[in-house]
Amino acid sequence: MQENAPTLADDFKTVFRYHPLAVTLVTAVTPDGPVGLTASSVSSVAVDPPALSFSVTRATGTAGALLGADNLQVHFLTPDHLDTAGQFARSGGERFVDGQGWSFDPDGAPRLAGTRARLTGRIIDTVAVGGSVLVVAEVTGVDAGAQDDPLLYVDRRFHRFDPEHAGL
Fold it and tell me: In whole angstroms, what separates CA 68 from the centre of its chain?
């Protein structure tokens, strides 16, 4: 085998690098305050009971805090949330600051203005896979939001969905 030949892992990452995904923020309330991260791995799992899944790349820091929370919120983003998505995607990014559009429910749960939807739920299972954790959450509430285009992530960049050129 050649020294610089792509590995299975490299090929796998390349496939998903060009697979467009909708962008969400997953948030939770912890004893230390709200936490959150950008996630493009959110997927529906079941309708009865309603459940979703997402993955985190490690069980420490923000991801670890999410995994230990009693409840979580999944905010479905629009292109208007580009800057906020970028802040929540990087370690040390500004989170829950003025200008991002946050308010808080009576129980302290974060609510981001202008999202396409916000789902609330609780983690019912986790599965460790390599260095990642797959999370399954039962959905306990659905807040329909703005009927806007989704913010997408492909090729390591955020993109606006273009409905003018979406039809086949």
Answer: 17
